Every structure is written in structure tokens, then in C-alpha cells.
Amino acid sequence: MLLSAVLSAVLLAGLWWITDQTIRDSFGASAREGVDVDLTGLVDIYASGGQAELEQRIADRLAMVPIDAGRAHYLLADRSGNPIAGDLARWPDLDPQISESGMIAIGSRTHAYARATLISEDLALLVAHEPPDRAFLLTRVGLVFLLGGAVFVGCIALFAQVANVRVRAKVARVGEAFRRSDEPALDRLAAPERPDEIDQIASQASQAVKRARQLMLAYRETSEQIAHEIRTPLMHLDSRIQKAIAQDPALAARANLVEARGDIKRLVAMLEALLDIASSKAQTGDTRGMKPVDFSASVRQICELYQDSADEAGYRFEWDVAGGVIVPGDEAQLGRIVTNLLDNAFKYNRPGGAIRVTLEPGPRLVVTDEGPGIAQAEREKVFERFYRGRDTDPDIQGSGMGLALARAIAERHQLSLRVAPTHPGATFILAPAADMRDA
């Protein structure tokens, strides 16, 4: 604010100096022009009326007192510089032979612009004009600049102060949001109503903080759950391998080793699912690397692949896929949602039951089976990692990771996955998050 005021004052002072010099130069040019015109007129009078007429006209002009212009002075002298007519007592230091001009002293305090010239071999004429009184005009101009400058500098200072207060308030709000580090405050920073440069920086910083928080949260959850959940499978695996080593019969050892391999495969699948969930959660809201995906073609291809499995299991498998459904995202991950939902439907469907897949523009994907369904109290829990329903058949293999991974991928693509309230059977709906909120 102080710098703005100082710069404004300096600029105004420079502008006033330029204006003052322009006014002084204008008065000087006017005085020179007046002297030349006056001198030319007197020379013409001498040429037409002679010396006597010239002396009379000089006397007449000296008798007039100008109101607006500066006072005029004259001197008609002989060749030796002795005064003949006029109000000047002596010839100044100007050469009449070359019509020299310049400033001369009039008394002890006054100066005037003068020009001297020869009007005959024996006569020299000098005309001098005092500059008009510039003090009043310069004072008025200086006063205007002073008052106007004060108002201008005051306005600049006021605007700077308002901007300073606004910037301080924004910075304080940003600092408070980062200190509190809560989601609503960071969301407000990420989507300002009237963004400026500070808002853009705050928005980028807020998104970076939120992304870092998601990464840390995903890392912590994955680490904790891996440490907790992997202990039991590893103990079982160790026990079975010990049994296989201790048993002599080759067939029994082979069977135990086959079971051990199955446990290892399930363990690897669980670890991969955990990592995929963590990666999807960390990338939620990050659109980098996404591109338009023909979701219709992808869903249709997956359904065709599952048709053979449906025939082998004795399920009636139907699908109705609308064409031209384009979704921005990662094609492999979007396909993972569909395969996980179909795996879940195939796993829990009743014998001979139907499985239906519907895709509509939106996108809106619906996967329905005719299994035991999902109780209302468990419709959100089924999306938690490692959760399996209370009524789940213990013979059905699974780690409880498929639906958790499907929802994590959906959230990364700004989609929502939920269980619709249907019975019997279960219905999963994948649609844009905004449509789910409005539903």
C-alpha cells in the first residue's frame, strides 16, 4: 500500500513538472512571436511614414498599458547607440546588424525577450516584451495537481488497503483450512466461487493435500489389514505343509500340497485385491491417464465370455446392452467392476436361477441374480473389505474383497455402486454418483 502511494505521488510530481515546463515554453513562444510581429509592424511604419511617424507610434504604444499581456519596451537609437525614442536608457548587448534576439534586463528585477534590427544605415530599432504574469496560472495548475494528486493517492491507498485486507483474509482462510485440515474446508478451497490467482494456488494445494491424505489413508489401511488378515492364512498354510512332510503316503502328501497351493493362490488374489483397492482409493478424483472407453463393447464382450460358464453352471444368463455408452476412465478397471459383479452373481445364485445384465446410457449398469439376496442391514457392509454375509454358505470360497474393489474402482471414476432393495435375489446398480444422490 505504501509503495503504491509513493509511486503514485512520484508519477504525479513528474506529470506536474512536465505541465509546468509546457506552460512556460508556451508563454516564451508567445512572447517571441509578439516581439517579431510588433517589430515588423514598426519597420513597416518607418518605411511608409518615416522617422517622425515611427517615433510617434512608439510613444503611442508606450502610453498603452496592457491588461493580459506583458508590458512592451522600445528603443530607437542612432548608429552610435544614442537613444532617440523609447523608454530604454541604453542599448543592450544585442547586435542589430544580424537582427539578434535574446533576453535583456529591464531595470533590476525584470527581464524581457527582445530583438534588435537596423531599419536604416543610421537607425537601429529594438523591441522587447515582458512575459505575461505566469504566477497566477502556474499557481492554479499547481493547486489542481496538489488537490487532485491528494485525492488520487488517497484512492490508490484506499484500493490498496482494500486489496490488502482481502488478500490477508484469503490467506488467513487458506491457512485456517490447512491448519484444521478437515474435508469441508479443503473442498471449499478446491472449488472457489470466484477464483483468482490466490484461489487457484489454494485449490491446487488443497487437491495435493487431499491426494496425499488419500495415499496415506490407503497405505495405512492396507498395511494394517494385511498385517491382521494375513496371519491366519499363513498359519494354516504352514500347518498343511508340515502335515504333507510328515505323511508317508504319496497320495495324501499330494492332496495336502494341492490344498496348500489353493491357499497360496487365494492369498495372492487377496493381496492383489488389497493393492488394487488401495490404488483406486488413492486415485479417487484423479482423471490423469483416463480416456473415453466404449463401455457397451466392454460389457458385451465380458458377457459373451461368461456365457459358457453360465451354461456349465446351469444358469439362465441374459444381457441387454445399449450401444454407444461411452465412459471416461480406465478400460481394464471398468471391466473389473463388471467381472467382480458377475463373479458375485455366479457364486451366490440359486441352482438353475437367472442372471441378468442391463446397460443403459448414463451409464447405468444393473446386475441381478436370483440368489438368497442381501439383508437390508448388510447392504453397505458387503462393500467392506473381508466382510462376508452372516448367511453365506461356508463352502463358498471367497475373501470378501470383490465388492470392496468394485466400489473403490467406481468411486475413482466418479461412479457409485450400491445394492438395490430387491427380494429375492440381489441387484447391484452402477451409476454416476450425482444420479445416486438425486435418487
Automatic annotation (TrEMBL):
Membrane-traversing stretches: 135-160
CDD domains: HATPase (cd00075), HisKA (cd00082)
Coiled coil: none
Enzyme class: transferase
MF term (GO), any: kinase activity
InterPro entries per record: HATPase_C_sf, HATPase_dom, His_kinase_dom, HisK_dim/P_dom, HisK_dim/P_sf, Sig_transdc_His_kin-like_C, TCS_sensor_his_kinase
Catalytic activity: ATP + protein L-histidine = ADP + protein N-phospho-L-histidine
Name of this chain's protein: histidine kinase
Source organism of this protein record: Alteriqipengyuania abyssalis
